[in-house]
Amino acid sequence: MKIVNVVLSGGVGSRLWPLSRKSCPKQYLPIFEGKTLFQKTVERNQALCDHLMVVGNKANYELSRKDLEGLKVQGYTEVIEACPRNTAAAIAFAALSSDPDDILFITPSDHLINSGDAYAKSVQRAIELAKQGYIVTFGLKPTRPETGFGYIEADGEEVKGFREKPNLDTAEKFLKRGNFLWNSGMFCFRASVFLEELGMFVPEILNASIKTIEAAKNGFLDQELSMKIPSTSVDYAVMEKTTKIKVVPSTFSWSDMGSFESIFEYMEEHGYKADENGNMVIGTDLHTEFVGLKDTMFIQTKDAILVLQKEKAQDVKKVFEKLEKENPDLVN
Fold it and tell me: Phi and psi at residue 155, in whole multiples of 5°?
């Protein structure tokens, strides 16, 4: 039995357009003290795990390899998806590529986490529970009424239910209640336990994933077989249905870096100052003045400019989706 850090790196980061593109998603942007979120994820879990497995896709596996080379990490396992099939399939591929007794610690590659004692304790507790046969999720104690995250209703380590991203009024109620946690998208379980539960609840995902893994060549998955796998999130497929679920309530500093609001906070903490009205420029040294605007972000890349009111940060995804149809070169 070994502890395997499974790093999921297939996301596009559409809410961080125009910084994040299909050819270089947010987890590979070297803007976090000169490192990428992918590199920071691998580094913080090295001391807690015995082995590294990267589940990426054919569009970005070379970026992962380059990042790992930069960290001088060798001897890892790769699963390279032919097309995105969501997290249930990605995790199934990881479990099918592991020994049944292996404990898998599933982490997205694009989260920013303060990896101190609180983090290590939470991960160690999750590993203990996973060894006992539980499927474990991590719930972060909320620090504000956040509408961009899903929530877990908990009683200690017992999970009472999962909730979709709420509106502001509901998020404020969750915060007051005190037993709602942010759903971090991180999990821990024995490979065999996950596959048993997936087979019970969504056998079509498991069966199609087995066929796809069996036909893999040097870690590369087949496109035709992959397209037969239903595209479902692991939350819908397993977490919301299994009776083996536990949550580790956690207090470590965590952000999914899912919007420009998160980037704004990070930049402010690292000496990148906004003006007196909360306006910030990213991506250009050109002198910029904001007149009559507050809490606005001006983001420039070589081929695009985004002007954004900070509280509308979640809506950038709609711009990305529109451009995907109308001007795909701007998102690639």
Answer: -130, 95
